[in-house]
Design a protein that fits this description.
single chain; 212 residues; alpha/beta; 5-stranded parallel sheet; 10 helices; 51% helix; globular
Length: 212
């Protein structure tokens, strides 16, 4: 699985810590991590949590990544922004229990962490424990185990609802302010990482045209 890390501007200086913790745990389970930044608060490309949502949706819908780890100060804004787009199912993850239950019950493809809360001493331990419970088992196996059938049924229903209530991602990109979209895609390594992994689709080709 390819995991994309996206940090918004208020928490960008924590990128090296989050990346190293995520890379260590993901590597243990055979997953690859691609760091889309922000890398520091002084980056030229300033990602707000709304831009993080748009960037995550582009990466997931073009299959450039399979999963996104993001967040903001509280994690709430990033979660709301990601869930505003089609093809994303983002959970708000505060602790390892949240991580495990979100994956086993909701089987999503993104999480938002509150990076401004509980990030003092031991923050690297907290992050590693969150990531470990996130990836310890394939998603959608149920929790508690005897709830797996109704939980899987509800996940399929939710996926169906989102297909109806969310418009097409290409339509969204074409109708958003194009400067806003281009700013979102102006990260230092976006073009290189994206073009190496995205699928060959009309959506991906539209994104490529924006970042020439």
């Amino acid at each position: 699985m390819k995991i994309g890390l996206i940090m918004e501007n208020s928490q960008a200086d924590k990128n090296p810590l989050v990346y190293e913790c995520l890379k260590e745990v993901a590597g243990k389970y055979g997953h690859e991590v691609v760091n889309y930044g922000m890398y520091s608060s002084s980056d030229a490309c300033q990602l707000t949590y709304v831009k993080a949502g748009l960037l995550a949706a582009i990466l997931l819908n073009t299959k450039a990544v399979d999963f996104v780890v993001t967040g903001c100060g509280t994690g709430e804004g990033a979660m709301l922004a990601l869930n505003a787009f089609p093809g994303t199912l983002c959970g708000h993850v505060v602790d390892p229990e949240d991580a495990y239950m979100f994956m086993q019950i909701n089987d999503g493809n993104a999480i938002a962490i509150p990076y401004a809360k509980g990030m003092g001493w031991g923050s690297e331990l907290r992050l590693k424990n969150i990531f470990d419970q996130l990836f310890v088992a394939p998603g959608g196996n149920g929790y508690p185990k005897d709830r797996v059938v109704p939980e899987q049924r509800n996940k399929k229903i939710l996926d169906g609802v989102k297909k109806i209530t969310h418009t097409d991602m290409l339509y969204i990109l074409k109708n958003l302010d194009q400067d806003f979209v281009k700013e979102t895609l102006s990260g230092e390594n976006f073009k290189k990482y994206f073009e190496a992994s995205c699928d060959d689709s009309e959506l991906a080709n539209y994104v490529k045209a924006l970042v020439k």
